[in-house]
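RECORD TYPE: inverse folding
INPUT: structure tokens
STRUCTURE:
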């Protein structure tokens, strides 16, 4: 089932009329389809099961950290990929078992490391020698051992936007393979460390499986070398990155993805495969719904000025991401226009789309920015003192507000 469909000319999320939601909750808002989230989890779970891979899907909380959404995945048995103390806190609050959490990130503070240890997370995905030493010192001083995987950087070009590429040496993430081998050997004798696994994540919005395959080949060789040297691994974490359809993007074949995963894990057949999808799980099941406040024609360009902004969805300006934008109510016969969809923020970079062809619409009409469930709300800001917008979860013909819209009071609650 498609999560967003027109029924009698009006866009619905599952069986719920979006116009009716806006009338109750107000514009703008994020809208999510519960069945889409569940279907994406199940699809990935099924392809990995089909390959008979013992696996854990650790949902990358950074894609969308709303508690109700984390809880949907928790109930399905997911773990979480977290990258901060705050994400550990939210994942716990969302019902994820700490033992199913993997903690990456190049700048873990001492406080965060202590919090992660106290919480009993599954493993630290370690990103530098200094970090490993720090984790060892903290764990040993508390009479504990920290389970770790080393995040290796296989140095392959993921052919995605540079800001979401990670697996090349020019980026800050992971440890080059040559150094990683030495680090594993050194970690063996660290009192506060238990070597548990390996981790790599080459980038996000991967649409070309050959780059994952290239990384896999490199990782397999490295794993053979590790095994030969006597290092036993219990987990192999292949990161996230599965791309989704925004406009004309190719999507990767999940069966082939699972076959590659199988090849990686076969070096240590007893190991648990961990994958950390974020965008794939929640991207296509979310839309940003926003109202046209004003239509402005400056003689050269036509602007639809809407009530959502870069503060709500930064992807277009940050990554030049292109989202499909569609009317909530179809305007048959009104003709098409070319417009920039822009927000109220005082920046020329505040746009949701540029030069798109869309139905000729009127002030007060609603539009939906599609495939906005991942890295949408979670990258919101308060710039221009804009309160964060509501999030609404649809379950068939029911909806619930899973984050109320913020008020002006929320804007000053942490300030003196
Ligand atoms: C370490 C790590 N794992 C998983 C993810 C999730 O990536 P995606 O949303 O593309 O699946 C990211 C995203 O940046 C990441 O950095």
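DESIGNED SEQUENCE:
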């Amino acid at each position: 089932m498609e999560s967003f469909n027109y029924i009698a000319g009006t866009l619905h999320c599952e069986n719920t009329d979006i116009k009716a939601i806006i009338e109750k909750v107000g514009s703008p808002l994020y809208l999510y389809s519960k069945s889409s989230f569940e279907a994406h989890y199940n699809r990935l779970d099924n392809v990995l099961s089909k390959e008979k891979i013992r696996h854990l899907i650790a949902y990358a909380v950074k894609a969308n950290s709303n508690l109700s959404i984390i809880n949907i995945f928790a109930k399905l048995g997911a773990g979480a990929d977290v990258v901060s103390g705050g994400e550990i806190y939210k994942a716990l609050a969302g019902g994820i078992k700490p033992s199913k959490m993997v903690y990456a990130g190049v700048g873990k503070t001492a406080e965060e490391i202590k919090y992660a240890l106290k919480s009993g997370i599954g493993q630290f995905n370690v990103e530098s020698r200094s970090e490993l030493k720090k984790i060892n010192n903290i764990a040993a001083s508390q009479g504990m051992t920290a389970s770790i995987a080393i995040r290796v950087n296989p140095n392959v070009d993921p052919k995605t936007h540079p800001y979401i590429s990670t697996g090349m040496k020019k980026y800050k993430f992971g440890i080059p393979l040559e150094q990683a081998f030495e680090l594993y050997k050194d970690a063996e004798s660290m009192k506060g460390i238990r070597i548990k696994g390996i981790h790599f994540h080459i980038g996000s919005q991967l649409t070309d499986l050959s780059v994952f395959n290239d990384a896999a080949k490199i990782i397999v060789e490295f794993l053979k070398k590790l095994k030969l040297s006597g290092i036993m691994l219990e987990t192999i974490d292949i990161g996230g990155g599965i791309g989704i359809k925004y406009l004309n993007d190719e999507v990767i074949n999940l069966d082939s993805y699972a076959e590659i995963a199988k090849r990686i894990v076969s070096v240590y057949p007893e190991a648990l495969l961990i994958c950390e999808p974020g965008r794939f799980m929640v991207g296509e099941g979310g839309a940003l719904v926003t109202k046209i406040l004003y239509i402005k024609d400056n003689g050269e360009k036509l602007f639809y000025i809407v009530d959502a902004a870069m503060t709500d969805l930064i992807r277009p300006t940050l990554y030049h991401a292109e989202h499909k934008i569609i009317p909530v109510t179809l305007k048959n016969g009104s003709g098409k226009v070319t417009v920039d969809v822009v927000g109220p923020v005082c920046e020329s970079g505040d746009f949701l789309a540029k030069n798109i062809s869309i139905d000729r619409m009127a002030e007060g009409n609603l539009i939906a920015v599609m495939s906005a469930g991942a890295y949408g709300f979670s990258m919101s800001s308060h710039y221009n003192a804009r309160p964060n917008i509501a999030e609404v979860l649809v379950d068939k013909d029911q909806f619930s507000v899973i984050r109320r819209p913020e008020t002006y009071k929320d804007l000053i609650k942490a300030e003196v």
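NOTES: The domain at 4-33+285-412 is CATH 2.40.37.10 (Lyase, Ornithine Decarboxylase; Chain A, domain 1).
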